[in-house]
Every structure is written in C-alpha cells, then in structure tokens.
Amino acid sequence: MLKGFFNVPKAVNEPVKNYAPNSPEKAAVLAAYKKMWNEKIDVPLYIGNEEIRTGNTKNITPPHDHKHIVGTYHLAEKSHIEKAISNALASKTVWANMAWEQRAAIFLKTAELIAGPYRARINAATMIGQSKNIHQAEIDASCELIDFLRFNVEFMTQIYADQPYSDSSVWNRLEYRPLEGFVYAITPFNFTAIAANLPASAAMMGNVVVWKPSDSQVFSAKIIMDIFKEAGLPEGVINVVFGDALMVTETVLASRDFAGLHFTGSTHVFKDLWAKIGANIHNYKTYPRIVGETGGKDFVMVHPSANVKQAVTGIVRGAFEFQGQKCSAASRAYIPQSLWPNIKEQITTDIQSMKMGSPEDFNNFITAVIHEGSFDKLASYIEQAKKDTDAEIIIGGNYDKSVGYFVEPTVILTTNPKYVTMKTELFGPVLTIYIYEDAKWSETLELIDQTSNYALTGAIFSRDRYAIEEATVKLQNAAGNLYINDKCTGAVVGQQPFGGARASGTNDKAGSMQNLLRWVSPRTIKEVFVSPENYRYPFLGE
After folding, report:
1. d(CA 6, CA 123)
2. Which residue in 115, 118, 120 sits closest to 34, CA to CA?
3. Do the beta carbons of residue 203 and residue 224 sit within 8 Å?
C-alpha cells in the first residue's frame, strides 16, 4: 500500500567508530567529557510544554568518582505525575492523527543528530553517568540507538503496508491505530539506547508516553530529551518524570487511561507491576499491553571440540564488558575437563591484562559498577564464595569503593553446578565456572536448561556440527537469543531481535517489527462497493 509512494530511507546499521589514538572522534568525545564533567547540569521534569523544577533534588554522581557531583535532577510529587498523564492525553489526538511519514521524519532526524552533532555529547554523558568505557558507550548510546530509530521507521512502514486481500467487489484494509490511552515506559540504567527506545518506539506508532528513566541514567536521559526537542518532537508526546518509583507507578497504574507498559528492569519489579495491573484490570478502558525484558543468568557452553582462543574471548568479553552489567552478560560457564587447563591459563592472562579505572582513560577496559547497592551486593557474594567449601575464587575477588564502586573481574570455580552464583543474577563482573566431564556433554546441556529460571541469552562454542545441533535443540527454551561460536552479548538491531522468555521477560523482540506491533491496535475496515438488496441466498430458491 505504501511502497513506491513514499521512498523511505533504507535502514542500515550505524558503523562503530574506533576512537584510535589521535583520531578526531577521540578528541571530540574527550573534549565533551571534560566540559560535561564540570558544567553541573540541572535536569527538570519534562511535562507538556513545561520544564518543571520542583526544588526537591538529588545529585548526579559518576559511579567511578562518587564524590564528584556533575548535576542535580528534580523529583516529582504525585500531582506532577497526574499532570504528565493529562498532558500526554491532551496531546494524543493531534499526535495520533499526524501522518505517519511526519512522525517518521522526527525520529529519522533524531538518528542523524546522534550520528553527527550529538554523538560526542551522548557518548560522554553515558561514560560519565553510567561509567561505560568509550567502546561500550559508542556501541550503545550512538550506534544501537541510531539503529533503533532507523530500523523502527522501516519496520513501521512494513507494518502499515501489510494489508489484507481485496477483490473487485470489496476493499479490505487494516488501520494500525495507536493504543487507546497512554503508554508507561520504565527504563534501566545499563543502556542509553534502551532508555530512549522504550518511549520512542511506542511514540513512533502514534502513542503518547509517560517515561520514568532510572535514577542512575538521568544524565544521558537529559541529552536524549535535548535531541528529541531539537528533532521536533511535539511537546506532551513523551513526558519525563523522576521520583519515588512506587509513588510514580501507583499513580500511573491507577489511571483509567493506562494502556500499556514498556519495561526493562528486574524480574521482581516486573512481576509486581504485572500483579498491580491485574488488580486494577476492571478500572481500565482496555486490556493494557505488557511488554518487559527482565534480565538473565546467561550461559556459555564449551564443547571439547571448541577453538580455545575463540571460547576464551567470548567468555571474557561476554562476562566483563561493561562490568558484567548487561542483562545478556555471561555469568555462568561450563568447561570440559580436557580444555580447562588451557582455558584457565588464557582467561587468567586476559583478565590480569585488564586495566580498571575512569572511562576518561581509554586504556581502561573495566570501570565502576553503577552504585553502592550493587557494589555491596557483589561484595557479599564474593565474600561468601571465599568461605564456601564448594567454591573457590581463582581470579580477582578484590573490591574498593573509597573513590568509585570498583569490583575486580572475578572468576569463581565451583564443584556444585547448582551453586548460588550459578543461579542468582548478580549484574556485575563475576563469572562462575563449572567443569564437566567430556563424556557428560549431553547431561550438561540438560543441567544448563534446568539450573536457571531465566532464559535470555546463551552461547555455544563448538566445531562439531552434531554437537551444535544437539545443543540448539536441547537448549531451545533456555535462551531467547542463542549464539553459536560468539559471545552471548551484543545483539544488533535488525540482525538479532532481542528478548528472552521464562523469568527473562515477554520476549517481544526489541529491534524487530514484533515489538512495534505491540503498540498498535489494528482495526479492520471492509467496504463493499455494490451491497446486496435481498436477504435470500440461492439455496432458498425463489
């Protein structure tokens, strides 16, 4: 229906800049970093056409230097949340009725602003506020976010173009309406791209949004709103609020016009939200859409035939990039006895070569974990592993929060395949390894499937195609994203639609058309050109 009439730009993945020494992109991001480190931003609530400063503020502090204050953000009261809802609803009709190509243009412009003039600034904000090294900031805040925006426009046009069959007597068509009400987006600290995409994907399909970013991602959330505004996003389409999570959520879910939840965060919080929505179901105008991605206990399974260097690289990158704070991070690994001595040696060499410190120093692979609560949790599990007879810390195990929340990359070796750190999501640079007998490959696959309540990502390293096939079949329900001979992180928009099942979420596949379909409510329209004028069918005779 749309193809050939509008020449929509073809989505392509944004190239990753390398930030090599003396490169212009390195100079630009370091200049932005230094400027933003000292400028002391003040982040308001964004409600309708207002930037509201309540005076009730919290400090924004970098995890790698928690005594340094880079800004403040303002906290909402219940009245502000109610105002955000009413402003969103007041904006809904005009926004929903805007021609789809006009909405698309806003988000395509957003992508180009990030690719160009805002690239250094959004990367620097992510480095400062979330303690990502430059590579992790680049692949997240720039490349993945650009990809989300570009590909979602293409997915949107494909959805609208999907129309039913018609013949000469009847015209059938599908209208992809936005949801009746508003969408509530709750976003995490660990990906700037996810923080922007959760409200933007719903808005792109004509919805209005109340967005609550993580308190630990406010710095880059402010940059996202700056870019949306420059791209021409109308006021009231995406309303941003900060404050007590329980108060915000209870106020939002009490609204009769609540129509959808777009969530990334912890399993426990998501289940509580689902329960609250269920308890309020008789109050809503419609059945709310509930979309959530909620973490994982992601595995790496190494077959005796595996290439050791490739397996080690996949394990080390998967477990320790961004301090293990990706929901897809490798946190449990299963190594065959025959390869263990070689793998242990190479993992040890790799980890000992990693430098840790501020992301401003491009020599640092590891920086800080996100906040003190995370630091303390990780420290408690590390200390327990030092005491337990069925676990041994073979690499790392040290931590220090005097300046920043630094936890060494830590490897725990366990003789118990159900040891607590083989099952519990830690969200930090802690990897637990279990050594299996080579002959028990098949049994170990079953063990992997049965150990965790999560089912987000997993990786298989093998050069034996029969083993790969067996693992792919046996681990069918153990991971929503399965990687063969690659690390279990790094899903690329448009290439590996992302999401998991079990306790890992509703598996609505961000980075694909499937996610956008959750934010529309199709209406079928049938138009008959020559209508019948007699109720009698031929079988009745005259």
Report:
1. 33
2. 120
3. no
Task: Output the CA angle 283-284-285, nearest 5 degrees.
Answer: 125
Strands (E) located in 179-296:
182-186, 209-212, 238-240, 258-264, 289-293
Calculate the CA 8 to chain-centre distance: 26
- Return the C-alpha torsion angle 313, 319, 322, 324, nearest 10: 180
Amino acid identity of residue 453, one-letter, is N
Count the alpha carbons within 13 Å of 347 in the hemisphere toward its beta carbon.
29
- pLDDT by 10-residue block (mean), the chain, 542 residues: 60 96 97 97 98 98 98 98 98 97 97 98 98 98 98 97 96 98 98 98 98 98 98 98 98 98 97 98 98 97 98 98 98 98 98 98 98 98 98 98 98 98 97 98 98 97 98 98 98 97 97 97 98 93 79
- Tokens representing residue 19 in the block: 């930030």
Q: Report how far residue 453's alpha carbon sits from residue 311's, in angstroms, rounded to the nearest whole number.
A: 25
Give the catalytic positions in this structure: 293
Give the ranges where 73-144 is alpha helix by DSSP (H).
78-97, 100-115, 119-130, 134-137
Residue at 176: amino acid letter: Y
DSSP percent split of the chain into helix, strand, coil, nearest 5: 40, 20, 35
The amino acid at residue 441 is W
Q: Quick one: angle between helices 192-204 and 218-231, nearest 10?
A: 40
E strand or H helix at 73: strand 71-74
* Positions of E strands within 338-398: 391-395
The per-type count for the chain, helices as H runs and strands as E runs, is 17, 23
- In one-letter notation, the amino acid at residue 109 is K
Both tokens of 538, joined, read 């031929």
Which tokens go with 377?
Answer: 């949790």
- C-alpha distances in angstroms, 444 versus 128, 435, 436, 473? 41, 10, 7, 14
- Residue 241 CA to residue 45 CA, distance in Å, equals 5
Whole-number Å distance between alpha carbons of 397 and 365? 17
Q: How far apart are CA 195 and CA 178, in angstroms?
A: 21
Do 451 and 423 touch, CB atoms closer than 8 A? yes
| 144 DSSP 8-state letter | I
Neighbours of 374 (CB within 10 A): 21
Predicted TM-score of the model (pTM): 0.96
Which among 47, 114, 161 is positioned nearest to 516, based on CA atoms? 161
Residue type, 371: H
Distant-in-sequence, close-in-space partners of 341: CB < 8 Å, separation ≥ 6: none
Distance CA 124, CA 137 (A): 8
| Residues 6 or more apart in contact with residue 425 via CB below 8 angstroms | 267, 295, 296, 297, 331, 454
